[in-house]
């Protein structure tokens, strides 16, 4: 089966689920000096593209924004969403080699803010991303924010609390407590995908769940 990258601090229930499904779970630890709240987040260090996972050069990162968001672009395989002023040059080169449509937004934490459902569809609480993605021709479900835990911050992001693994959208925690759960579930299932979540703990931002096939 595939490799799946998750934060070292991800809940053991999530890790066990992935292992039991046959995946090779790679726990990401703090690789460089970084805010402890995001230091183990996979989407700080890598970006899932259409054909591969881009692993960034660690020496390019530093603790200050936007220098630690240079790999945090959101790729659906068809579209690449990011503040293109911040995107690492080699990552942008890889995106262009795949012929992805570039969607420039103000947000440096694009992946944190997007649940990738399929190549044309995302879920986000960021109105700037929503507006730019719709203009680019994408299907976007706009949801309410502030319902995800991120230790040390008032709230985290739904994209950072989820990931697509095979034909499943996996949420790290209990998505049923989100005020837009029914719309989220419908949006995912209408695209032929399954929704997986864990009722035992609250929805928590762990820097995305990233599959490498």
Q: Short description, anyone?
A:
The protein is of the alpha/beta class and 213 residues long. 19% of the residues lie in helices and 25% in strands.
Summarize the SSE layout with pairings:
Elements: E1 3-7, H1 12-20, E2 24-28, H2 42-45, E3 46-48, E4 53-55, E5 74-75, E6 79-82, H3 89-97, E7 101-104, E8 114-118, E9 121-124, H4 127-135, E10 139-142, E11 162-165, E12 168-171, H5 181-189, E13 194-196, E14 210-212
Parallel strand pairs: 1-2, 6-7, 9-10, 12-13
Antiparallel strand pairs: 1-14, 3-4, 5-6, 8-9, 11-12
Taking all residues together, what is the mean pLDDT?
97
Number of helix segments?
Answer: 5
Pick out the low-confidence regions.
none
* Helix/strand/pairing category: alpha/beta
Radius of gyration in whole Å, from Cα? 15 Å
First and last CA, distance: 8 Å
In oligomeric terms, what are we looking at?
single chain
Order of helices and strands: EHEHEEEEHEEEHEEEHEE
Describe the structure.
The protein has 213 residues and is α/β, with parallel strands linked by helices. It has one domain. The chain contains 5 helices and 14 strands. The protein has a 3-stranded mixed β-sheet with strand order 2-1-14, covered by helices on one side. Strands 5-6-7 form a 3-stranded mixed β-sheet, covered by helices on one side. Strand 3 and strand 4 form a beta hairpin. The protein is globular, with a radius of gyration of 15 Å. The termini are close together. The mean pLDDT is 97.
């Amino acid at each position: 089966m595939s490799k799946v990258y998750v934060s070292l601090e991800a809940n053991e229930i999530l890790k066990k689920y992935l292992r039991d499904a046959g995946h090779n779970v790679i726990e990401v630890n703090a690789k460089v000096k970084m805010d402890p709240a995001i230091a183990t987040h996979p989407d700080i260090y890598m970006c899932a593209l259409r054909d591969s996972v881009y692993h960034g050069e660690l020496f390019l990162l530093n603790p200050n924004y936007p220098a630690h968001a240079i790999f945090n672009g959101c790729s659906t395989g068809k579209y690449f969403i990011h503040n293109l002023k911040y995107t690492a040059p080699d990552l942008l080169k890889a995106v262009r080699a795949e012929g992805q449509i570039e969607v420039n937004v103000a947000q440096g934490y694009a992946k944190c803010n997007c649940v990738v459902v399929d190549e044309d569809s995302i879920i986000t609480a960021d109105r700037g991303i929503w507006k730019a993605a719709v203009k680019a021709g994408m299907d976007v479900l706009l949801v309410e924010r502030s319902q995800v835990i991120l230790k040390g911050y008032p709230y985290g992001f739904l994209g950072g609390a989820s990931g697509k693994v095979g034909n499943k959208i996996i949420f790290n925690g209990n998505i049923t407590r989100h005020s837009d759960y029914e719309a989220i579930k419908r949006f995912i299932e209408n695209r032929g995908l399954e929704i997986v979540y864990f009722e035992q703990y609250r929805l928590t931002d762990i820097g995305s769940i990233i599959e490498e096939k």
